[in-house]
Write a structure and sequence with these properties.
3 helices
C-alpha cells in the first residue's frame, strides 16, 4: 500500500486551500499536484470526476478517493486511516 496522500487541486480554489489546511493542521504528509501546471494530474482528476475538474481530489494510501470533501469527511478519513499527527514533511505551499 502506498503510504502517501496525493492532493490534486489549484492554488486559487477555496476548497483545496481548506483541505490542505486540515492536512497541515494534522501534520500529515502529502504530495501536492497543481492541475493548472500538471496536465497528467488534470487528466486524472477529469477521469475521476467524469469530465469535470473537481478539486480537491484526494487519493489516500488505501487507494480510496475523496472529491471536494467536507471538513467532516476529511477528518473522518484521517481518523479511519490512523493518519493523524505523523512526522510532517508537508509543504507549506500553497497555504500559509
Amino acid at each position: 500500500m502506498n503510504k502517501e496522500i496525493i492532493v490534486y487541486g489549484t492554488k486559487w480554489c477555496g476548497d483545496t486551500i481548506r483541505a490542505l489546511r486540515i492536512l497541515k493542521n494534522h501534520q500529515i504528509d502529502f504530495i501536492w499536484v497543481d492541475i493548472t501546471r500538471n496536465s497528467e494530474g488534470a487528466k486524472l482528476v477529469e477521469k475521476i470526476s467524469h469530465g469535470c475538474r473537481s478539486v480537491p481530489t484526494i487519493i489516500f494510501p488505501d487507494q480510496s478517493i475523496l472529491v471536494e470533501p467536507s471538513n467532516d469527511q476529511l477528518e473522518q478519513k484521517i481518523k479511519a486511516l490512523n493518519l493523524d499527527f505523523q512526522d510532517s514533511k508537508a509543504p507549506d505551499y500553497p497555504i500559509d
